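pasting Solute carrier family 35 member 2 for the record, 388 residues
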Amino acid sequence: MAAGKHSQAAEEKAASRGQSEVNKKLKYISLAVLVVQNASLILSIRYVRTLPGDRFFATSAVVMAEVLKVLTCLLIILLQKRCNVKQTLLFLLDSIVFQYKDTLKLAVPSLIYTLQNNLQYIAISNLPAATFQVTYQLKILTTALFSVLMLRKSLSRVQWVSLLLLFAGVAIVQVQQEGKKEASVSDSSNQNYTVGLVAVVISCLSSGFAGVYFEKILKGSSASVWVRNVQLGIFGMALGMLGLWWNDGAAIAERGFLFGYTDMVWCVIFNQAFGGLLVAVVVKYADNILKGFATSFSIIVSTVMSIYLFGFHVDLLFTAGAGLVIGAVYMYSLPKAAGGSSSSSSSSSSSSSSVLPRTTEGAEMEAFLPKIKDGGLTREPEHGWKMI
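structre below
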């Protein structure tokens, strides 16, 4: 009897050790995926926006990404309803149309997200990719501040220090970059550094407010997050089409909605639409510290790739500023000491992101595949959706 129990205990220990090794490998895979997704989106947008020749309409790309996101959410809802089309339609009719007051609550964040997606194209079109990647981390600061003001969350001393370092690092980078252009495009482009800087700052402000507002709505509702994203997508498509008509209506009527679309442009759109979903699948194996590392590594990757792709020049001042930002991102992601109050962890990586509206991270992250009925996605402004 004792021998049997000993054998069973040994098997359980071996299984636990094996599972631990698998989880360790998955963490490293998650880290790699997060870094690649965070860096590739910024670099690819920058690349397609600086290529010579016909340039696609950013407003149409924003609308197309919204369409793909909504279709994905509808497909997942259909799968949840065991491919019963009638039941799915009745469910959507009740959730979106009959409960229209609930749907209208999503108009505000959807408007901000649509504005933000367009601002992202404007910012990356006018700023070096590395500079944008560093400056865009200000979304951590704005999200934290809005979380304190709107959700009454508290921050640890380490997090407050990290926010100060973050602001200082971004300020140093901006001082260094002021008036500079990328060597490869400085003579032929019509880039405007001031326009890009204003766009990224407004984007960070909107990211913080919209993410916290969306989190507040989610916490006060029992509605499926998939449905929430369909509601957001409906408003996003409508508002995106309005922005498209207002800004590029005449040109699109003349040249077509898909004017300037190349294989690379489609890759950017799919990355923007599904990148957050990919992150949601792998991030369940990660934690806040790993995501902090991913954001930091993505800044380094963006900087190094910008040197080779765009002739970006890195000097001591930029290195110092970027180093402060990387350190601040890592510090902010550290868990609080035992007994501390809950932190404002609703910000995410430029994975982070995004990326993506913001909800609380870490322990609240639900497994995506095994618990599809209980889990869901929340949208990240910088790269689509993330799990809650």
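The chain is about 70% helix and 0% strand.
The radius of gyration is 22 Å.
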